[in-house]
């Protein structure tokens, strides 16, 4: 009986040993799986960070390669110079009533008369007759952009005549100051039409007036040194939504 008991006890111990060994193996496998999983998550995070860094670096490289070209700068500056419109001179013909805006005996009317473009008559009360000559009619028909309007109250014709416009001279110099930002140095000069030539401050018509009248023509009536030295200027250019344009001042 003791021999049988010993055999049974030995079998139980063997079963326990086998169970314990199996449990240990399962535990080790589970631990290994958990370790593998715990090491995969940081690795994925590192890979994601590397990809993000490479993406950002590639974006900056691409953006920095998008520099402002000379052709783009030329076009933008030309547009900028035209944005203010041309220099103009305004006058009236017919029965011109003297006012703060119109002074038919002021230097601008007298210059037009000296140039043979208008004829100023004798005052009739508050009105002064101003007649457009055939030479004046021919010149203002020839110049593009002349605007003529009628004042029904005073029965006078108003003329707004372009005199000169600004134009880019030479090639602009571009300095990239940052991503999508540039500073452009350029030079511009005046391009006068035939009326502008008559209003050139260094020309014989303007120089024929006294100093005070010359100053009035320059300050109020479009006379300038149209053949003087070109003017240097700087403009800041920025790129937004893929388009270059002048930066807001």
Helix percent band: 40-55%
- Tell how many strands the DSSP assignment holds: 8
Radius of gyration: 43 Å
Largest sheet: 8 strands, antiparallel
* Poorly predicted tracts of residues: none
Average pLDDT, to the nearest integer? 83
What do you see in this structure?
This protein has 249 residues and is of the alpha+beta class. The chain contains 7 helices and 8 strands, in the order ααβαββαβββαααββ. Strands 1, 2, 3, 4, 5, 6, 7 and 8 form an 8-stranded antiparallel beta sheet that branches. A hairpin with a 2-residue loop joins strand 5 and strand 6. The protein is elongated and about 155 Å long. The N and C termini lie far apart (110 Å). The mean pLDDT is 83.
In summary, what is this structure?
The chain is an alpha+beta fold and 249 residues long. The protein has helices at 2-65, 70-83, 107-114, 134-142, 194-198, 204-207, 211-220; strands at residues 87-97, 118-120, 127-132, 147-151, 156-178, 181-192, 231-240, 243-246.
What attributes characterize this protein structure?
8 strands, alpha+beta, 7 helices, elongated, 8-stranded antiparallel beta sheet, 249 residues, single chain
Q: Topology, please?
A:
Layout lengths: L1 H64 L4 H14 L3 E11 L9 H8 L3 E3 L6 E6 L1 H9 L4 E5 L4 E23 L2 E12 L1 H5 L5 H4 L3 H10 L10 E10 L2 E4 L3
Antiparallel strand pairs: 1-3, 1-5, 2-3, 4-5, 5-6, 6-7, 7-8
């Amino acid at each position: 009986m003791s021999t049988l008991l010993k055999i049974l006890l030995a079998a139980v111990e063997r079963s326990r040993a086998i169970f314990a060994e199996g449990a240990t193996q399962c535990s080790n496998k589970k631990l290994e799986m958990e370790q593998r999983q715990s090491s995969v998550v940081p690795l994925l995070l590192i890979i994601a960070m590397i990809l993000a860094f490479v993406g950002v670096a590639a974006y900056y490289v691409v953006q920095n390669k998008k520099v402002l070209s000379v052709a783009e700068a030329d076009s933008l500056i030309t547009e900028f110079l035209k944005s203010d419109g041309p220099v103009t001179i305004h006058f009236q013909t017919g029965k011109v009533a003297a006012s703060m805006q119109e002074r038919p005996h002021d230097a601008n009317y007298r210059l037009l008369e000296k140039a043979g473009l208008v004829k100023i008559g004798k005052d009739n009360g508050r009105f002064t007759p101003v007649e457009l000559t055939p030479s004046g009619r021919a010149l203002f028909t020839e110049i593009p952009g002349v605007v003529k309007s009628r004042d029904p109250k005073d029965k006078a014709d108003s003329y707004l005549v372009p005199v000169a416009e600004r134009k880019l001279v030479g090639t602009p110099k571009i300095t990239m100051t940052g991503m999508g930002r540039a500073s452009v140095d350029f030079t511009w000069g005046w391009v006068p039409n035939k009326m502008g030539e008559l209003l050139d401050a260094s020309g014989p018509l303007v120089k024929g007036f006294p100093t005070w009248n010359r100053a009035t023509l320059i300050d109020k009536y479009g006379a300038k040194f149209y053949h003087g030295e070109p003017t240097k200027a700087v403009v800041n250019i920025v790129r937004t939504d893929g388009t270059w344009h002048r930066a807001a001042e």
